[in-house]
Amino acid sequence: MSDRMRQWLVTAGAIFMIFGTLYGFGLIGTPVEQSSGGSLSAEATLLAPAVRAFSIWSVIYLGLIGYVIWQWLPGNTASPRARRIGWLSALSMALNGLWLLVVQVGLLWVSVAVILALALTLGELMRRLGTPRATGAGEKLLVDGTFGLYLGWVAVATLANVTATLVASGVHPGAEVSEYLAVAVLAVGAILGAILARVLGGRIGVAVAMSWGLFWIAVGRLTGQPSSDLAGVTAAIAAAVVVVATALVLLGRPARRPVTEHAYDH
């Protein structure tokens, strides 16, 4: 009964997320970039990624739908990993949908609280998955891969969300100071990426999504508005730091040796 309740709750979370997404894409509401007075558009702040960065959501959403189907398969109903992350995965999708609805009505500080809760939820979810291990290709893709991308992107989005909310609240320290503050926040992003690589055992999905988001912040600042060579170059460096930190963790992780019958001879 507990397994069945978990499966239904995960499905309900996905449905609520899809409902919020319809608003976020502008199908039944205002697109995110136009909501909250345009505070979350690609040109709102120095930490806003270029528009193309948001295409990663399509991959994440497809992965989440695939995960919902995966956890319903008979062989996965009682899966220990499905049990460890089921409630958290449902919460993450519900928070995703809630964030999209909150920004529709311009509650930016509430959106900050929601996205922080989402980031913490995904961080705990990935911790419960443990370090990368040998699993089936489907499970790696739909569970480890999807939630890794999800966490990595939300980590970058949180930085952008907080910055946009401060700017919308009237924090305008001037062009030069804003650049230095952007550099400081991007440095925090790079450090966060390195910490996540260390703590989570070098999750490739997390690194891909974080470096993707940071790269498109660089593109936005170097080729779009508001323009800032300093912030753009820093964002590119931060993206590289995340990739290198993850690679170092993966290279330093001892290879798993298969257990043979001789291992028990002594």
Structural overview:
- The N and C termini lie far apart (44 Å).
- Helix content is 71%, strand content 0%.
- It has 266 residues and is mainly alpha-helical.
- The protein is globular and about 55 Å long.
Strand content: under 5%
Task: Determine the structural class based on helices, strands and strand pairing.
Answer: mainly alpha
- Cα(first) to Cα(last) distance is 44 Å
Rg calculated over all Cα atoms: 20 Å
- Total number of beta strands: 0
Given as residue ranges, the uncertain stretches (5+ residues, pLDDT < 50) are: 257-266
> What level of helicity do the residues show?
over 70%
Order of helices and strands: HHHHHHHH
- Biggest β-sheet, characterized? none
Global geometry: globular
Counting H and I runs of at least 4 residues, what is the number of helices?
Answer: 8
Topology:
Elements: H1 2-24, H2 56-72, H3 80-104, H4 108-129, H5 137-168, H6 175-199, H7 204-223, H8 229-252
Helix pairs in contact: 1-2, 1-3, 2-5, 3-4, 4-5, 5-6, 5-7, 6-7, 6-8, 7-8
Key terms:
single chain, 266 residues, mainly alpha, 0% strand, disordered C terminus
Give the gist of this structure:
This protein is mostly helical.
